Amino acid sequence: MEARTRTHPPPRWSLVSGALGALAWLAAPWAPLGSPPPFGSIEHVFLFLPLVAAPLALLLATLLLGDASSIFHAAARLAQPVAAAMVLAAFLVARGAVGGGLTAGWLLMAGLAAAGGIRAVKPGSGANLSNVSLLAAHLFLPLGAVWLLLSRLGVRPRAFSDLTVFLAALHFHFGGFTLQILIAATGRLVRNERSRLGALHRVLALGAIAGIPIIAAGNALPSPALKLVGVALMVLGTIALAVTSSSVAFGMHSRTVRRLLLASATSLAAAMVVAGVYGAGELTGSGWIDISRMVEIHGLLNTLGFTLCGLGAHLHLRMHRAGS
Asked: What range does the domain containing 147 cover?
């Protein structure tokens, strides 16, 4: 039996925030004001993170950190709903001073979460590197918030396109934040760290951490070869996570947790297949699927399937254990 953890504010705060955020995310494409992002567009996919995934991911991180979770982390969870609403508003107005200013709350929230996570996480031993993944998640989140600020301001570094800046924000939030937390949570469930599954998880943890900054460096230099290495690390890492999550799922006694983990792993694998089909079409000139359709399918599989089901599974398991 695990000891109860201090999760002030209570879990209900984050769960309600996620539920209300889901309603806002579904309604966003039909907002009566401004220029709402079309359903399934890359902007709409991104909004899933602050509105729905972030409150759940922050709660899961708090449960994983246990009593080490600090007042900064609690403050971030309290601020998240307001900061997420400001991000939504930032996407309803044109890029510029107003749009950028509305993301400042998110940057503050990310800074609070980072301060709490860095103080609480102790990389230490832990052969499965789950604590290192947690630390990476809290470092990547404010970096993603900075890129989001630049994107909504309409500011871009030299040689960066507007799309590249926005993709940096998206990747640091999803690949750099929620993915790292899910990797950490999965690592805690690997029973034998010296097994092949444990070794696979260590490799995926390191690859997923290294992939994001390598992609960013490839874009900044610019170096297509370096970017390709980063993308390859992320692809291999996500495939390995699908395998690890599936293996862990079959060992779960809870049918709900097992089904959610398998749905998460299956969605992740399917999303990678869609991306692979698009990439192959680009290389061969076949054009089997266009970029807008690929972004829509890939994004929705990653958000509703992989991220939401994965967070739901781990939260269900952790909250049940904390309450037992």
From this structure: 11-323
Question: Mean of the per-residue pLDDT values for the chain?
Answer: 88
pLDDT tens, position by position, 262-288: 999 999 888 888 877 776 776 677 767
Interior/surface letters 30-67, b for 16+ CB within 10 angstroms, e for the rest:
eeeeeebbeebbbbbbbbbbbbbbbbbbbbbbbbbbbe
Residue 77 lies in a domain: yes
The answer to whether 105 and 83 have CB atoms below 8 angstroms apart is: yes
Domain assignment of residue 3, yes or no:
no
CB atoms within 10 A of CB 79: 17
Decide if 122 contacts 67 (C-beta within 8 A): no
Residue 173 lies in a domain: yes
The encoded tokens of residue 158 equal: 């030299």
Assess if residue 6 is contained within a domain. no
pTM of the model: 0.92
Closest CA to 115 of 71, 181, 149: 71
Q: Which amino acid does the sequence have at 68?
A: A
From the list 133, 3, 141, the residue with the least C-alpha distance to 68 is 3
Q: Residue 274 maps to which CATH number?
A: 1.20.210.10
Domains in the chain: how many in total? 1
- 84/52 Cα distance (integer angstroms): 9
